[in-house]
Specification:
Elements (H helix, E strand, L loop, with lengths): L1 E2 L15 E7 L3 H10 L6 E5 L20 E7 L5 H4 L2 H16 L6 E4 L3 E4 L2 E12 L5 E10 L26 H22 L1 H10 L7 E5 L4 E9 L5 E4 L5 E4 L3 E3 L6
Parallel strand pairs: 2-3
Antiparallel strand pairs: 1-2, 3-4, 4-8, 5-6, 6-7, 7-8, 9-10, 9-13, 10-11, 11-12
Helix pairs in contact: 3-4, 3-5, 4-5
Length: about 260
């Protein structure tokens, strides 16, 4: 683990709500953020690394993290329940889409794959990982919002097709710093909406970009895979899946895949 606060962090121009802890290389920004949070780090502490050696995604999957892409984890201490805090994943997705819009050619198709992926031209360009600690009484102590955005490169062999901003037409000289600054600004604006107006406007904006809404999808759960129509998000952010025969399932955790003609 190599820390470089004076070097990399000095290159950033972020709103004062953030306090940056920068690394050249770290095992995982989420792991480092969790350590800092446990030691009392403030809300808004942002752990940023140019490279991860043991990055991970949902369910402990390996997250390939070469230099040139954006890797960060944000320590948040919202005054809400753990369930409500999970809505910040949707807030972050909107902010990522906003940031992408500032660095890619006009009219690029940015969509969202439930629960925590951002797609560009139908391929994964960013992922979000939420990890929290609660008290013995169930109160939220802190939330780590981790995200990775493929800026210069993307993995070739993945379960779901991947892409990068540069591959999709962004300037080849685009840096992770530019993308980080754009995300940081837009995230604050989207959080303000969430704090002031609740989840409803976030949900509406997310659904406007939902990939395969009103279409057939496959949802892989722990012990079964369901096929049905992606009908909606409920008021908590759970996926509403209409099954053949008229029944309905509300899904709070799972992996979504699309039939080949929907990918």
């Amino acid at each position: 683990m190599t820390r470089d606060d004076a070097g990399a962090a000095s290159l950033l121009s972020l709103p004062p709500a953030y306090r940056v802890v920068a690394f050249d290389r770290v095992t995982s920004t989420n792991d480092e953020a969790a350590r800092l949070a446990a030691d009392g780090a403030e809300d808004g502490t942002l752990v940023w690394a140019r490279e991860q050696t043991a990055g991970r995604g949902r369910h402990g999957r390996t997250f390939i993290s070469p230099p040139g892409n954006l890797y960060l984890s944000l320590i948040l201490r919202p005054d809400c329940s753990p369930g409500e805090a999970a809505q910040l994943g949707f807030v972050a997705a909107l902010a990522i889409a906003d940031a992408i819009g500032t660095v890619t050619p006009p009219l690029m198709e940015v969509t969202f794959k439930w629960p925590n992926d951002v797609l560009l031209s139908g391929r994964k360009v960013a992922g979000i990982l939420l990890e929290a600690r609660t008290s013995p009484e169930g109160a939220l102590e802190w939330l780590i919002l981790g995200l990775g955005i493929n800026v210069l490169s993307h993995p070739e062999k993945t379960d779901f097709p991947a892409t990068s901003l540069v591959f999709e037409g962004a300037d080849p000289s685009l840096s992770d710093i530019v993308v980080l600054e754009a995300f940081a600004r837009h995230f604050l604006a989207r959080v303000d909406t969430w704090l002031n107006d609740g989840f409803a406007p976030i949900r509406r904006a997310w659904l406007e970009r939902a990939h395969a809404l009103e279409q057939e999808i496959h949802v892989r759960l722990a012990h079964e895979t369901l096929t049905g129509t992606f009908r909606d998000l409920d008021e908590t952010g759970a996926l509403v899946l209409d099954l053949p025969g008229g029944s309905r399932r509300i899904i709070t955790a799972g992996d979504v895949f699309f039939p080949p003609d929907k990918e």
